[in-house]
Design brief:
Helices cover 3% and strands 30% of the residues. The chain is mainly beta and 155 residues long. The chain has a single domain, classed as YaeB-like (Elongation Factor Tu (Ef-tu), domain 3, Beta Barrel). The radius of gyration is 18 Å and the shape is globular.
Length: 155
């Protein structure tokens, strides 16, 4: 499907300032409140809404997926920091952390797939609490998503 007629010059429309998204499913894992660490062994089930079941076809052929979710409790947090001091004692801008207190409260995690059954997708290490709305799921592709030379600060 073409968004503009073949051969015509593409002129980008003005991007929207506000974006509205809809949940495609919800996290189920028994974790009741946000926490900064300890997610690596948490097993979660992503319950997709029934209308999205066909979209899971062959997703279980991938070892890992990327899950985008909305941290729905974060907007109600009393603090809205621009910076955070981490356990290392170093201070970072909020966008240089994995804190849930982000401007748009989006979470993105690359996690291993444990199984798919109907509308249920089981994963491990998803750092989302029980009930978090799932916005999107993509297969993890090492040629795009792995960066062996990536670096992180020492503290």
């Amino acid at each position: 499907m073409r968004l503009w007629p073949f051969g015509s010059k593409f002129v980008r429309p003005v991007p929207p300032a506000t974006v509205t998204l809809s949940a495609i499913g919800y996290v189920r894992n028994g974790v009741g409140k946000p926490r900064p660490r300890g997610w690596e062994s948490v097993e979660s089930t992503i319950e997709l809404l029934p209308e999205h079941q066909a979209k899971l076809l062959n997703l279980d052929r991938y070892s890992h997926i990327i899950v985008t979710f909305y941290m729905d409790l974060a907007p109600g947090a009393a603090e809205k920091p621009e910076q955070m001091t981490l356990r290392s004692g170093n201070t970072y801008g909020i966008l240089a952390t994995r804190s849930q207190l982000r401007p748009n409260h989006l979470g993105v995690s690359a996690v291993p797939v444990l199984g798919v059954d109907g509308t249920m997708l089981r994963v491990r290490g998803l750092d989302a609490i029980d009930g978090s709305p799932i916005l999107d799921i993509k297969p993890y592709l090492p040629e795009y998503d792995a960066h062996p030379g990536a670096r992180i600060p020492n503290g």
